[in-house]
Design a protein that fits this description.
It is built from six helices and 14 strands. The chain is α+β, with helices and mostly antiparallel strands. The N and C termini lie close together (6 Å). The chain binds one DNA strand through helix 1.
Amino acid sequence: MKIATFNINGIKARAEALVTWLREAEPDLVALQEIKSTDEAFPHEIFEGLGYFIETHGQKSFNGVALLSKLPLEDVERGLPGDDGDEQARWIEATVVGKRAVRFCGLYLPNGNPAPGPKYDYKLAWMERMRARAAELLASEEPVILAGDYNVIPQDEDAAKPEAWREDALALPDSRAAFRRIVNLGYTDAFRAEVEGPGHYTFWDYQAGAWQRNNGIRIDHMLLSPQAADLLRGVTIDKEIRGRDKPSDHVPLVIELDA
DNA sequence: ATGGTCGAAACTCGA
């Protein structure tokens, strides 16, 4: 099963480019972030026409996540537990049954800038809520995938210019520690299970020629439960599409799972 | 040190 996560930065602006990529890559299961759309305004029919089931958790203008799947999406849950007052659409999960049942979570973790400040406090609180949900999911002892835009640069080697991110919410020590607290529950960073060393990025800013200078960061991740990590057969970053017309500032991270 | 670019939607904010 080919599984991807892709921050598309607006479904209305990206529908055409997304269809092109889906036709080429033919993923079975995709987590989308930053749909920037309400559920009603999301162009479901375009993706249903490509043979995907689709579930969205959107809001007007900002944030918003969605799941696309060639197999039915079962037991869909929207919203990250732990704060009934949180109105930001950043979490959706569902079960997909192939050879194995997989619990697939799509997440758009808060950016957190400027730090310090209320947005950074929200990011860290959100990460603690995510840790609690990740721990619950581990207890199922089933394959679990936490896929999305984490807005966390895990280590200096995950940035072309780490010094430029020293004071940024994506790289501050508290952000990295909160990310490690989730990993250390027993999850595997799928990309780092397969690839060592610097120079691998999933995001290049639109500004200052970041793509042309390869000034990127690795902030889109898939964390795998032990039962999912056992099934990992490969990982790729579809970097090439960043150079196309009207690209997202992120590119897809794709894994092959024997499920 | 600054400004540089996008998307959604509205005359600005979030990234």
